[in-house]
Amino acid sequence: MKRNMLIAGIVSLVMASAASGQTNLRSEPGYVDLEAMESWFGEEPYLFVNVKGALLNLVAEASRFEDPDLADLLHRLKAVQVRGYKSDRSDAKAIRSRASNFARELEKKGWETAVRVRDDDEHVELFMKSDGDVIAGLMIVVAKDDEDETVFVNIVGDIDPAQIGRLGRKFDIDELERDW
Q: Residue 27, Cβ neighbours under 10 Å: how many?
């Protein structure tokens, strides 16, 4: 009986922590609501990563033995969100137009465009949100016509830009593994 009460108490604490973390995450300066992208594609993402709170701390501690610097980086983050959508080549122009509008909206909210690459079959944008002298958020948009996909990545927290590739390798996110 005591064991069941202990388990119930722990579950309640974890759930309360997760619920309060969700509310607090939305108020973070580097947070971007990626759910709105579903309307662009009319379907759920094929790639969905949402690592935050207790799960992010678990990943950080699991990394500590192998890579202490990565563990420290992960502890400074609030969330790593990724959404990937398949698209048809015929939708490429409309998606790029929406991405451009999205970029303008981010800029209106104080995000800075750090990288913009537009070539024949790839459209890449990296935005940074500063909070004083600290990078509080990164938002990456990658639209690849040759692979018929669009990927959105939002990293929230105290970010060291030199460590972004390490995050990509840890979470197997190809779009983060490039040299920014």
A: 7
First-to-last C-alpha distance (Å) of the chain = 55
The residue ranking higher by pLDDT, 20 or 66, is 66
Tell me how far apart the alpha carbons of residues 127 and 109 are, in angstroms, rounded to a whole number.
11
Distance CA 4, CA 129 (A): 45
Report which of residues 149 and 173 the model is more confident about.
Answer: 149
Distance of alpha carbon 157 from alpha carbon 143, whole angstroms: 24
Least Cα distance to 125 among 146, 147, 98 occurs for 98
User: Could you tell me how far CA 114 lies from the centroid of its own chain?
Assistant: 16
Alpha-carbon distance 15 to 32, whole Å?
A: 23
Smallest Cα–Cα separation from 29: which of 160, 138, 116?
138
User: What residue type is assigned to position 29 of the chain?
Assistant: P
Q: Has residue 13 got a pLDDT over 60?
A: no
pLDDT in tens, 67-116: 888 888 888 899 999 999 987 766 777 777 888 888 899 999 999 998 88
Say how far apart CA 35 and CA 38 lie, in whole Å: 6
